[in-house]
What we know:
By secondary structure, the chain is mostly helical. 78% of the residues lie in helices and 0% in strands.
Amino acid sequence: MTTLGFLQNMGGGSILLIIVVIxxxxxxxxxxxxxxxxxxxxxxxxxxxxxxxxxxxxxxxDKKKKV
Length: 67
């Protein structure tokens, strides 16, 4: 997994420190709300990319039928 390659250089203490800082900044009640919002955003992005891909594939099929 290349997107999370930077985590290989981090130890357990560093990750724990980051989690504590996030908890202090946002609070325990806000983190689930942020995660839900992030999940919705990712879902909408995937749906939009799927829709664009379907439109492109449909356009290519139509173009092949005309030729």
